Amino acid sequence: MKHKMNFLCGVIFIFTILMPVANLSSLFFTSEGELKLSQMDIYPTHISNDNSFRLKDAKTNKEVKAWAKSVMVEEDLNVKKDKSVWFYVALMPVPIIGLVTWFLFFFYFIKFVIAINKGEVFSWKTISLLRKAGWASLISEMVGLILLLFANGNRVFVGYANDYSRLLEEIPGLLCGLLLLLMAQTFSIGLKQKEELEQVI
């Protein structure tokens, strides 16, 4: 039974690592010179020639019209920021919080797995570890959603609008933390009932 549980925990670890890496994969690219690029999620407000660009087919060597969905754009330092400097200063700790809570999730989850392997299945210690892992995962995912919300900044392009659909696609990531909290609550109810039953007997 423990081998099956350890295998499932290993799968959870792999997915927990691979998902953030997949989201950050767009950062691993080479650019000419010293260009500073940023990714933006956008969608065309209409389909016409004024907001299209051309791509060349590698096989036929023919050009086809295309409309952008997600683009890498050069950052323009001269663009006036709508928000004050204090807003961006206040936002600076957010990614640090996300990184710390991400590592805390691994720390508490590993301690939980070790405790289970030692036979401490239904104990207040394992319930506490589950709760801490759940909150760490939940906060980490929420930080990711906040950063995604402000990813596009205040830049808007003619014929295009900022696309926040990826924000909705990332919301199911909150389920991991919520399920851990649900498990912790279920375990605590069961353990409390067990202790009350032992007192009656």
Instruction: State the secondary-structure class.
Output: mainly alpha
The DSSP helix count reads 6
Characterize the largest beta sheet: strand count, sense, and whether it forms a barrel.
Answer: 3 strands, antiparallel
Rg, rounded, reads 24 Å
Low-confidence stretches: none
Helix content: 55-70%
What overall form do the CA principal axes indicate? elongated
Cα-to-Cα separation, first versus last residue: 30 Å
Mean pLDDT: 78
Give the SSE string. HEEEEHHHEHH
Number of strands: 5
Beta-strand proportion: 5-15%
Question: Your description of this structure?
Answer:
By secondary structure, this protein is mainly alpha-helical. It has helices at 2-23, 85-91, 93-117, 124-149, 165-170, 175-200; strands spanning 37-44, 53-56, 63-66, 70-74, 160-162. Helix 1 runs antiparallel to helix 3. 12% of the residues are buried.
List key phrases describing it.
201 residues, mainly alpha, three-stranded antiparallel sheet, two-stranded antiparallel sheet, 6 helices, 5 strands, 12% strand, elongated
Summed up:
The protein is mainly alpha-helical and 201 residues long.
Write the layout of secondary structure elements.
Layout: H1 2-23, E1 37-44, E2 53-56, E3 63-66, E4 70-74, H2 85-91, H3 93-117, H4 124-149, E5 160-162, H5 165-170, H6 175-200
Helix pairs in contact: 1-3, 3-4, 4-6
